[in-house]
Input
Amino acid sequence: MNASQPSPQQCKRILFCTDFSPTADCAFDFALDAAIHRPGCEVILLHVIPEPEAQFWKTYIYEVEGIDAKARRDVDAKIAENYLPRTPEGVTLRVEIRIGRVSDEILQFARDNQVDLLVIGRHGHSGLGERLFGAVTDRIVRKAPCPVLVVPNLT
Output
């Protein structure tokens, strides 16, 4: 083990990345389990709005008033529905949202926040999304500054 890496028992920050897919939902259970077994550990839920979508929204924002607020409400509603009710008492859950290239944003966030463990699903949504999220996961595994737990869809 690298001297700069904390031991599993010293894990203080777990980064869970979601695209709201069934695979991400499955990965959330693993992030929670890791946090439950490490009292005082914080789970950071990160959702990255991919850059192509962000460009569409940036264009649309100028045409439709309040669209960015609506997008944020929609993401917040998904988090409230999918993740908050499953978070046990005693586990701190912090929510972060970024816009950009998914793998770059996740890796930068992990570095900036000194994440001890990164939990991510192996694939996202089906079709093109599955191939993209698979590529994202591969890049994260290769370049992450911390251990990465990759979870397949187990449902």
